[in-house]
Amino acid sequence: MQKRLVLDQKQISITLSRFCHQLIENHDDFKDTILLGLQPRGTLVLDRIVERLKEISGIEVPSGRLDATFHRDDFRRRDIPLKANETRIDFLIENKKVILVDDVLYKGRSVRAAMDAMIAFGRPQKVELMVLIDRKFTRDYPIKPDYFGRQVNTLESQYVSVEWASQGFEEDAIWITEKEVKSV
C-alpha cells in the first residue's frame, strides 16, 4: 500500500499551536466560547487543543464531545448500523460561540449531522469549524473550515489516515493512502 506523508509529528504540533493562537486572537477571553469535538476522532484533536490552550493562555476553555450518529443522513442506509459514541456536553450552548473540532473534513456530511445534533443543547450565536485536514474538492455540502491545518487534493480512491502515538502508533502523523480494493 502506497502512503504519502501529509504532516509529521513536528508539523502537527506546530499546527495545533497555530490553532490555539488563532483561537486566542479571535475569542479573547473565551467567555462565551466552547469547543466541541466530533466523535470519535475529533475528540482526539480537541483534547490536544484544550491542553495546549491551557498551557499557552492559562484559560480552561469549556469543551465537550458530540456524537452525531443518529443525525447522519446515511444512518439507516447501511448494512451494518453505525455504533454511537458518547455525547458529553455539560452546559447549554445557547448564545455561545461554538467551535466544532474534527480531524478530517471530507464530504461535509458529519459536520452537517453535528450541527443538527448540537441544536438539542441550544441555539449557538455562531458556529466555526476547525479541522486538521481539509480534503478540497470533495464536498457534498457547502461547508468549509474556519481553521485548517493543511488542504489536500485527494481522489475518491484515497483515504486520509490520522495516527496518534497515544493510540499505539510510532508517532503522530497524517498520511494519504489508497483505499483497499475489495476483490470479488
TrEMBL record:
Superkingdom, taxonomy of origin: Bacteria
Encoding gene per record: pyrR
InterPro entries: PRTase-like (IPR029057), PRTase_dom (IPR000836), PyrR_bifunctional (IPR050137)
UniProt-recorded name of the protein: Bifunctional pyr operon transcriptional regulator/uracil phosphoribosyltransferase PyrR
Segments forming domain Phosphoribosyltransferase: 7-164
Keywords attached to this entry: Glycosyltransferase, Transferase
Known EC number: 2.4.2.9
Keyword Transferase set for record: yes
Species in which this protein is naturally found: Echinicola jeungdonensis
One function term, GO molecular function aspect: uracil phosphoribosyltransferase activity
Keyword Transferase recorded: yes
